[in-house]
Amino acid sequence: MPPEIDSGLPATPVARHLITEENVPIVITLTNGRGDKKGNLKHLKSPYRDAAFRHVFQGLDALEELEEDGATSVTVLLPLPSPSTPTATSSPSTATPTPYVRESLSPKDAACHERFWQSFSVYTGLAAHDVPAVWRDLSDLSTLEWFHHSLRHTGPVHSFTLNLSPDIDRLARTKRSAVKWLSRRIDRQLKLALGRPIDFWFAVELTQEGQPRRLHCHGELQIASSDSLCVRKALRIAGGEWEEARQFQAHTRPAPNVGWSHYVRGLSVLSGVVPYRGRFKNMKRPINGDWFASTNAVRSAASSLYTARRGQVLSLLKNVSVV
């Protein structure tokens, strides 16, 4: 019989993230994702800080929507910096950042997105900040969101779920960085299948049941729908193709929204680089290193996109008055 299957279909996306004593949110991670199975801390990154400034990013979205509709209730005292305008320090060879385009969400998806971040809109006793985090200090949860945004800005996107074979699961746990090792395997098989590099990101999660809990991957790929069949085969090979029921091993779905980046978190609380609490406090991390990975192009594009948007937010904080 094949191992327990994670279908990657978020039937109840919010329920996966309810915070109780039994399900502790990721609150801190390490600089550059470096960590060990003990989750030793080197640097604080907090989604609570990111949550504190979400209303400003949302306000910028609303302002742009009002301007597009010709509304005049908001006055910008100074022009917002355009992400496509080179700065005085930019070199002629520097690539022009992609302008940020708001993601359209259904009312249901927008409500789920809001409820997810409400979990972190609480007083924590952590030091207050006057400005949003720079890219290197973004929490893992925000970083995954911007990985998603970077892919949707550059072409068609598919979400994917990959269940690992027992052998690959076992090997991944022995590597210095499980996600880097898995990323190289996925990258190699996608290149072989499609004849070109494919941009992607993914996170490693543990199944909710079973002993031991199995590692599996959730993420996104930059592919067209016509490539999905070849891609699922490539993913199965990268994850160690099952001998039976292989049609359930890898799944893809077109056009995911930002809610998918929340879904992938799931029980990554068990694989993330955090100190455990509650019923997890005596557990050892199942993998070494970080709990998510991306291709260099995705990370670079996400950094540029976020940094440009953050610059607009800083300008908004300084230069906007409501009349």
What does this structure look like?
With 323 residues, this protein is of the alpha+beta class. The chain has a domain at 28-43 and 106-119 and 137-309. 34% of the residues lie in helices and 11% in strands. It is built from nine helices and seven strands; from the N terminus they run H-H-E-H-H-E-H-H-E-E-H-E-H-E-H-E. It has helices at 47-52, 54-68, 107-118, 140-152, 166-172, 178-194, 228-238, 259-263, 296-319, and strands spanning 74-76, 158-163, 200-206, 215-221, 250-254, 292-294, 320-322. The strands form two sheets. The chain has a five-stranded antiparallel β-sheet with strand order 5-2-4-3-6, with helices on both faces. The radius of gyration is 20 Å and the shape is globular. Mean pLDDT is 79; it is low at 10-39, 74-95 and 269-276.
Fill in the keyword field for this structure.
323 residues; alpha+beta; 5-stranded antiparallel beta sheet; 9 helices; 34% helix
Shape: globular
Look at the helices and sheets and give the structural class.
Answer: alpha+beta
Q: What low-confidence regions span 5 or more consecutive residues with pLDDT below 50?
A: 10-39, 74-95, 269-276
Bin the helical content. 25-40%
Strand content: 5-15%
What profile does the largest beta sheet have?
5 strands, antiparallel
What is the rounded distance between the termini?
A: 66 Å
Number of helices: 9
- Report the C-alpha radius of gyration, rounded: 20 Å
H/E topology pattern: HHEHHEHHEEHEHEHE
Strand order of the largest sheet: 5-2-4-3-6
Give the mean pLDDT. 79
Please provide the count of β strands: 7
